[in-house]
Amino acid sequence: MTSLDKPTTGADAQRDGQGGPDAQDGPDGSQSLTEAALFEAFGGVRGLVETTVPGLVFILLFTVTKDLHVAAIAALALSGVLGLARLARRDTLKHAFSGVFGVVVGVAFAMMTGNAKDFYLPGMLYGLGLAFAYLISAAVGFPLLGLLLGPVFRENLSWRTRNPGRKKAYVKASYAWGFIFLGKSAILFPLYWWSDPTRFGWVTVALKIPPLLLAVYLTWIFLAKAPPPIDVIAEMEAEEEAAEQAEKAEKAEKEAAAAARVAAGEPEPTRGEGGARHRRR
Fold first, then answer.
1. 207: Cβ–Cβ under 8 A, 6 or more apart, which residues?
2. What average pLDDT score do residues 170-191 get?
3. Which value, to the nearest 10 degrees, does the dihedral of the CA atoms of residues 38, 97, 118, 181 take?
4. pLDDT, tens digit, 9 for 90 and up, residues 34-93
5. Which residues contact 6 (CB under 8 A, 6 or more apart)?
6. Fewer C-beta neighbours within 10 Å, C or N terminus of the chain?
7. Are 63 and 253 in contact (CB under 8 A)?
8. What is the span of the domain harbouring residue 253?
9. What is the rounded end-to-end Cα distance, in angstroms, of the chain?
10. Residue 73, Cβ neighbours under 10 Å: how many?
């Protein structure tokens, strides 16, 4: 049984505060940890800007010029600049390329069909798929949000077997994300068929950030009230350090015994001699 799945006893919980050193600061410390992890996982304010501005530039230029190529090239160029800026700051590749990839796919769709609304279609399909993924994973007791945030909180999958209160929070948060994304899809898909490209684009941009902020806020509420995460990374590091210390102690004990035999004038038996003595016995 690994440290990810072994049950937590009362002594264990008291030792690590149900969440390692970071969780020993009380409710305020747990909330601060949750805020920092959510900020890292979703890219923070900058991540929200980077996922919104290219689409905003696209629909703005398309509204003014009615030229699909100009709008698509401008959005793609801006997204590339933002991605390069991320790389220059040595941010994670996930945050650097996620926005660029979405814009590239959207531009490809729009250029192939000649319909400006198709710039937003890949993102809509992705959001609808995420909605079902969140809802289904929560329904089967394996919430997607726990899989996404577990490594960020250094708890991995320990919430599944060792921290039931935290698993319950991840289930609630995954339901929240699923229903919010589903509600957003319920607005956008009818507009995709019935609305003109300009109006549809502005509605899509307007619905980019508010639903995401609502989902993040609800996640923060659920997790801030949940038990702190169990830092399984720290546990595994402590186990490895303890094993190394035990190995060093055993080696030192053997060296001390050998030195004592030499000081007493007793020759250290060789492996062959030891075997011969064993046979004579």
1. 184, 187, 188
2. 96
3. -10
4. 666 676 666 667 777 777 888 889 999 999 998 999 999 999 998 888 878 877 877 665
5. 162
6. C
7. no
8. 235-280
9. 42
10. 15
What are phi and psi for residue 268, nearest 5 degrees? -75, 125
- 167 and 256 in a single domain? The answer is no
DSSP letter string, 173-222: HHHHHHHHHHHHHHHHHHHHHHS-HHHHHHHHHHTTSHHHHHHHHHHHHH
- For the entire predicted model, the pTM comes to 0.72
Tokens 């390069």 correspond to 84
Q: How many domains does the chain contain in total?
A: 2
**225: Cβ–Cβ under 8 A, 6 or more apart, which residues?**
169
Same domain, yes or no: 224 and 249: no
Instruction: Say if residues 63 and 74 touch (Cβ distance below 8 Å).
Output: no
Same domain, 226 and 262: no
The predicted-structure confidence for 120-171, as pLDDT tens digits, reads as follows: 999 999 999 999 999 999 999 999 999 989 888 888 899 998 999 999 999 9
Same domain, 149 and 261: no
The residue from 190, 211, 230 where one domain ends is 230
Residue with tokens 């064993």: 278
